[in-house]
Amino acid sequence: MDASTTTPDSPVTELSEDESWKLLSGVSLGRLVTTVDGWTEIFPVNYVVQHRTLLFRTAEGTKLLTAVLNEHVVFEADDHNVAEGWSVVVRGTAKLLSTSAEIEEARRAGLYPWVATKKLRFVRIIPESLTGRRFVFGPEPDDEPPVS
């Protein structure tokens, strides 16, 4: 689905899986959502798409621990301009990469930390579901029904 299918008459449209992956591949900042002691936590992460999975790097700590200990994680990325925006949500499992083959493949993705800290751990989010939406911005519709 492309922008031409989103109109002011239908300001929200669903994106195809292919377009959702294309949009995810075009940005590098998203949000990882996990649960810690019954509380929802949101972590901003820079990431890359590799083989229709999401790959990010992290250091030891809460983000790494909660990503791999939770059975399921959610990841969201979005973008916008003055006329429209989009959002893609990925639900899946997070896997800490541990074998030399997994880590070498992850290194080939060209993912580098944004902050000048050591982020030695690679985590791959393996999708179970993916949903995307495109939004056309505009004024709120009138509440009053048209006069006949």
Q: What would you note in describing this structure?
A:
- With 148 residues, this protein is an alpha+beta fold.
- It contains three helices and seven strands; from the N terminus they run βαβββαββαβ.
- A six-stranded antiparallel beta barrel has the order 2-3-4-7-6-5.
- A hairpin with a 2-residue loop joins strand 3 (39-50) and strand 4 (53-58).
- The protein is elongated.
- 22% of the residues are buried.
- The model has no long low-confidence stretch (mean pLDDT 89).
Features of this protein?
6-stranded antiparallel barrel, 45% strand, 7 strands, 148 residues, alpha+beta
What is the terminal-to-terminal distance? 36 Å
Number of strands: 7
Structural class: alpha+beta
Shape from CA axes? elongated
Number of helices: 3
Task: Kindly estimate the percentage of residues that lie in beta strands according to DSSP.
Answer: 35-45%
Largest pleated sheet: 6 strands, antiparallel, barrel
Order of helices and strands: EHEEEHEEHE
The helical percent reads 10-25%
The value of Rg in angstroms is 18 Å
Strand order of the largest sheet: 2-3-4-7-6-5
Mean pLDDT across residues: 89
Summed up:
The chain is α+β, with helices and mostly antiparallel strands. 17% of the residues lie in helices and 45% in strands.
